[in-house]
Design brief:
Oligomer: single chain
Number of domains: 2
Radius of gyration: 20 Å
Strand content: 35-45%
Strand order of the largest sheet: 1-22-19-24-18-16-17
Keywords: Isomerase, Metal-binding
CATH superfamily of the largest domain: Jelly Rolls
Protein name: Mannose-6-phosphate isomerase-like protein (Cupin superfamily)
CATH class of the largest domain: Mainly Beta
GO molecular function, one term: metal ion binding
Pfam family, one: Cupin_2
Structural class: mainly beta
Distance between the termini: 41 Å
Shape: globular
Number of strands: 24
Order of helices and strands: HEEEEEEEEEEEEHEEHHEHEEEEEEEEE
Length: about 325
């Protein structure tokens, strides 16, 4: 593989292209300044304007959300995994039918494997623009987003209508639903009753891992964060590991799985027989299966990254033992 070919498999943080109309709440006050990014795979964007950096998926999707202070993402649910880690800022995640069942605050480097089948939302509670990176289960990311009814109703009041085909139409731009396409129906009370509202302590205990805990656990070997034996025991169709300078293989290695490197802190050198690339915080690199390579920090100081690998497990609801 040439350096030029490898560069096509790297999405640089500084090259990310945002979409400001990706979801139904794009015009709703309080949510109208967020930016969404699709890094690997199409994600769950409802807008044809969303730019996709790498279209081929390794069994899961990689995306990101950027928001200024006090901006929030509205209550929604997914049928497959939605995992976030905080790259920049301080974020509050909340869940439940009205967003009042529980909440947790995440700092930089913390990771949250949000249980499938619950309504969830999040907001930037920091003092500057924040960024969270996302891993979504499945090649098609579970078939889209399920919105809480009040989100759809609020969006309609501000000019955005979601069709039953999963596409957004902006009435402020004169767009209307195509012939034969009805608006996305609201969930009934019976359907809403099927969405659980887990207790706060259980969610924080079983689905959240803290950055400095992972740093300590990865001092000598990779820390499995999400997996059957991970800190957050789950089998959503992928595994997540956390690596520091002390947990890296001493020699060149190769994997049979797709290996997605997502840099948290520090600069890293990725080397292979055809060349070398440097990865910076916020960069995402898709290392192809079977490529023998080395991975080392490029300089002294704090260095950490998340490594995501596809598995044979079905991308479905959160697994519990």
């Amino acid at each position: 593989m040439t350096p030029e070919e490898m560069e096509t498999r790297i999405v640089r943080y500084g090259d990310l292209k945002p979409c400001r109309t990706a979801f139904i709440d794009a015009h709703t006050p309080g949510s109208d300044h967020k930016e969404n990014f699709t890094i690997i795979g199409g994600g769950v964007s409802e807008s044809p304007d969303q730019h996709v950096h790498i279209k081929d998926t390794p069994g899961f999707n990689i995306g990101a959300a950027g928001q200024p202070p006090k901006c929030r993402n509205s209550l929604h649910s997914h049928r497959t995994a939605e995992v976030f880690y905080v790259l920049k800022g301080r974020w509050r995640f909340f869940w439940g039918r009205w967003g009042t069942a529980g909440e947790v605050v995440l700092e930089e480097g913390d990771i949250f494997n949000i249980p499938t089948g619950i309504f969830r939302g999040f907001e930037n509670i920091g003092t500057d623009y924040g960024m969270i990176m996302a891993i979504l289960g499945g090649d098609d990311a579970g078939g889209g987003v399920i919105w809480a009814p009040q989100v759809i109703e609020d969006a309609k009041d501000h000019g955005l209508v979601l069709g039953e085909n999963g596409v957004l139409y902006d009435t402020k731009k004169g767009q209307t639903l195509p012939a034969g396409v009805c608006p996305m129906p609201l969930l009934s009370d019976a359907e809403l009753s099927a969405f659980p509202e887990p207790e706060n302590d259980k969610v924080v205990r079983d689905y959240v891992a803290r950055y400095w805990d992972m740093m300590a656990l990865a001092a000598k070997r990779p820390c499995q964060v999400i997996g059957e034996t991970g800190l957050l025991k789950d089998r959503p169709g992928f595994e997540v590991e956390f690596l520091t300078r002390g947990s890296l293989p001493e020699n060149a290695y190769k994997l049979s799985a797709h290996e997605i490197l997502m840099v948290m802190r520090g600069h890293w050198k990725l080397g292979w027989a055809g060349g070398e690339k440097t990865l910076a915080p916020g960069d995402t690199c898709a290392v192809p299966p079977g490529l023998e390579h080395t991975l080392v920090p490029a300089m002294s100081g704090e260095a950490s990254l998340f490594r995501v690998m596809n598995t044979a497990d079905k991308a479905g609801p959160t697994w519990t033992n």
